[in-house]
Amino acid sequence: MKYYVYAKQIVLDDQVIDKAYLTIEDGKFGPILMEEPQDAPIKDYSQSIVAPGLVDTHIHGYKSHDVMDNDFEGIKVISEGLLSCGVTSWLPTTLTSSAELLNDVCETIGNHYQEVTGAKIRGIFLEGPFFTEKYKGAQNPKYMSDPSVDKLAKWHELSHGLVNKIAIAPERKGVKEFIEFAKSKGVYTALAHSDATYEEAAAAVEAGANIFVHIYNGMSGLHHRNPGMVGAALSLDKVFAEMICDGHHVHPAAARVVTRARGPKETVLITDCMRAGGMGEGQSRLGEFEVVVKDGTARLKDTGNLAGSILELKQGVKNVVDWGLVSPAEALRMASLTPAQSVGIESVCGRIAPGYEADFIVVSDQLELEATYLDGELRYQA
């Protein structure tokens, strides 16, 4: 089956092509043509922008399901629901918990991940348990410990190699050896929920860590005499900074500092969305904690701490443009190509290029999502 998508703009890795025809054949992208083709039907998106499907590399749940429920039917619901957010690829993300529950979750997803029919599972992000308590956020300190090579090896094995990202606190013992081991398994190390000094964070990056998780949140702040985790995230070379752009986790002016320091090519838009996403206001849960969802935020009932978000990635993209931080094309890449590159999956998703699976979105000039396509099939229409 072959057809063409005619769009006002097509967003590629390093350019935007105006008024062109994108070939879709047998569920994959083909060449882009400037002249109107005659050999197959044309879908008219002449008022719209066509971009790669979004890639969410840090998301815990959606539509009242959570990765830590260890229920694959719930994972399928999340995967289907994400299509309405413009997301076509994602990393189910765990929380700090017991080694036993993490074993089970890794095994469940590893055994079944190819059964999802919505957004494709491209790995597993283990957010914890190797954190420290001071900036715990909504992570449970009773399960925190120093990094364990044996535990990571087990989770990686149980997931059939699907685990490809793990977050740790760089001030923990044994970090260098752990990061080197992770690297040997193709697992990317991220830094988070940490009171590390700038020097400790820099040492972890030197050892191979390459991502700072939800910048500003859950980490030691920037002080001009002690730059901390935030200073490291803003100033070290060749690292990615994840950012939750819901307008609650990070003030737009602080977000501008990140896009200026790191640039769009090293700023990763994520949601950190939890089960309350897509469900409206009310009571919810994150891991073992009670959560209250109100006024666009999810907060722990007993402390008022932000507990993940209810952000949809399409809204994060729109927000950074509305805040005047980046261009529409840059914002779209910050939620597709850049996240894919941060965990080494850009060979399978995050871009429109010949031979890639035809996972793409259609958005208006104002970046309102109009349609989501998976393998060339229309799967969501606004």
Sum up the structure in keywords.
nine-stranded parallel beta sheet; seven-stranded mixed beta sheet; 21 strands; Urease, subunit C, domain 1; 2 domains; alpha/beta; TIM Barrel
> So how many helices?
10
Number of strands: 21
Supply the CATH superfamily name of the largest domain.
Answer: Metal-dependent hydrolases
- The proportion of residues in beta strands is 25-35%
Helix share of residues?
25-40%
Stretches with pLDDT under 50, minimum 5 residues = none
Description:
The protein is of the alpha/beta class and 382 residues long. The protein has 2 domains: 2-51 and 353-381, Roll (Urease, subunit C, domain 1); 54-342, Metal-dependent hydrolases (TIM Barrel), CATH 3.20.20. Helices cover 25% and strands 30% of the residues. It has 10 helices and 21 strands. It has helices spanning 72-81, 99-112, 149-158, 175-184, 198-207, 228-235, 252-262, 313-322, 328-334, 337-342, and strands at residues 2-11, 16-25, 28-33, 42-52, 54-59, 61-62, 65-66, 87-94, 120-121, 124-130, 163-168, 188-191, 211-212, 240-244, 267-270, 282-286, 289-294, 297-300, 360-363, 369-374, 377-381. Strands 5, 8, 9, 10, 11, 12, 13, 14 and 15 form a 9-stranded parallel beta sheet that branches. α5 (198-207) crosses α6. The longest helix has 14 residues, at 99-112.
